[in-house]
Design a protein that fits this description.
This protein is an alpha+beta fold. It has one domain (4-118): 3-Layer(aba) Sandwich (Aminopeptidase), CATH 3.40.630. It is built from 2 helices and 6 strands. Strands 1-2-3 form a 3-stranded antiparallel sheet, with no helix packed on it. It has a 3-stranded antiparallel sheet with strand order 4-6-5, covered by helices on one side. A hairpin with a 2-residue loop joins strand 5 (88-95) and strand 6. The longest helix is centred in the middle third of the chain and has 16 residues, at 46-61.
Length: 123
């Protein structure tokens, strides 16, 4: 793992791991990189993975205004997963003859676009 990281392991008792996920940081990097590694059981446990992924992103949203991610372009399933989590594709990077899609997820410091004091009272 990197020098600075948060890591979370998801597993079912008595079985191999389902997912490892979290954030890693470099000393000179302002934006944390969201990472995830899945076992071959991902499709078998997809509902749990999807629910857990959303919960983890919500958890990180409380402390991070921006996160980035890079996914090998060959893995359409993972590219769709990143978009479903609210990451936006911003470009493609080539490394060792492989193409990676760069994603970013930004959280507006103002959660609502409307003035809370001007909103009508709901009953």
């Amino acid at each position: 793992m990197m020098k600075y990281s948060d890591c979370y392991l998801v597993r079912k008792e008595g079985e191999v791991f389902t997912a490892i996920s979290g954030l890693w940081y470099e000393d000179n990097r302002e934006t944390p990189q969201f990472f995830a590694m899945f076992s071959k059981n991902i499709k078998k446990n997809f509902t749990s993975i999807a629910r857990g992924s959303r919960m983890l992103i919500t958890f990180f949203d409380r402390t991070q205004d921006e996160m980035s991610m890079r996914i090998l372009s060959d893995h359409q399933f993972m590219l769709d997963w990143a978009a479903w989590l609210g990451f936006e594709a911003i470009g493609v990077t080539e490394f060792n003859s492989n193409h990676y899609v760069d994603f970013v997820r930004c959280i507006s410091p103002q959660k609502s676009a409307y003035s809370e004091t001007s909103r009508p009272v709901m009953h």
